[in-house]
Amino acid sequence: MQDLLQRDLGSSLLSIAVILGWLGLFFVFLRILTIAIKRVLESIFKKP
């Protein structure tokens, strides 16, 4: 019983870590995308 509980806790912690990792990657990708869009828009609308 103890082994089953520990394995279940480990798998749930692993699932939480994987979900947090994917969320982190998503936010990093979103940040890079917004910076790229901002630079493109600045270069388009920059006054000569």
In short:
With 48 residues, this protein is mostly helical. Helices cover 92% and strands 0% of the residues. The protein is rod-shaped and about 70 Å long.
Provide structural commentary.
The chain has one helix spanning 2-45. It has 48 residues and is mostly helical. The chain is rod-shaped.
Q: Major sheet, described briefly?
A: none
Arithmetic mean of pLDDT: 87
Number of E-type strands: 0
Number of helices: 1
Structural class: mainly alpha
- Our measurement of the CA-to-CA distance between the termini, rounded to an integer number of angstroms, reads 73 Å
* Estimated radius of gyration: 21 Å
Helix content: over 70%
Element-level helix/strand string: H
Low-confidence runs (pLDDT<50, min 5 residues)? none
Fraction of residues in β-strands: under 5%
Question: Which descriptor suits the 3D outline?
Answer: rod-shaped
